[in-house]
Fold this protein.
Amino acid sequence: WAMVEPEIRAIEALKREHDAVILAHNYMTPEVFHGVADIVGDSLALAREAQTVEASTIVLAGVHFMAETAKLLNPSKRVLLPDLRSGCSLAESITPADIAELRRQHPGVPVVTYVNTSAAVKAASDICCTSGNAVEIIESLGVDKVIMIPDQYLARNIAARTGVEVITHPGACEVHERFTPADIRQIRDDFPGVTVLAHPECPPPVVAEADYAGSTAQMQDFVVRNQPRRVALITECSMSDNVAADNPDVEFVRPCNLCPHMKRNTLAAIRRSLELGQHEITLDPALEAPARRAIERMLEVR
Ligand code: 13P
Ligand code: SF4
């Protein structure tokens, strides 16, 4: 920690100088998460909190779609993403043309879009969801069939919990799709008594082997509330590091996969972002209103 302290102090000074706050996703490394972030959370919390920020600049320590969402909900603020290469395999898997084709094949079926998508894809959708509110969003529509894109696994995991039929798109998270049911069985053999929490972006057979599935914030809440003796968080690597810091009595088994996009948010990149005012997120004016409407419809439900 002593090694990163000068960088953390420099970032704190830059935040004051530029009237900036740092919104950080739960997958940030501990030095970002505990060192410089002002607000931390899952995708849903970051979207909600973006609306309450008073500072004129938001640095989004996360990935591109999160920065776009913050900008959509805060059009008058400057939103910076430290590294423009911070993409997401889910966001890259789908275009508005894919949604148009799905609508043509399934006329009248509402399109529920995971927030891990571009503003253009959100603009072509009826409503957004996150992994933390997908069940409530689907149920709020009062229909028996939805098009749920672009994460095929999230869609199937949520369908299993709602009884609503889902039409999917073949997208997947490059981090969570790599976990297998055999991994979970191995963890149970190696660490008797372990409680296994999986992110719903994992394939359904992995979720079936877990004790609980939820968003990153829901996994964290589970640990805080239940204080399991041993826990395995089947998700991105920094999650266990960050939750472990606040739960010293819980033993964390650490099978994990790194998200290369999230990991581009180093302290050095965040510092440069504040120093140079880069990379500023801008939106296509034609997409702004429809994309914002899909997010706001979601936030009205939960
Ligand atoms: P949540 O934090 O919303 O669960 O999302 C996980 C994720 O992979 C974000 O990119
Ligand atoms: Fe995208 Fe998966 Fe990385 Fe999240 S963890 S940003 S869903 S690739």
User: Anything to note?
Assistant: The chain has 14 helices and twelve strands. Residues 91-174+285-301 form a domain with the Rossmann fold fold (CATH 3.40.50.10800).
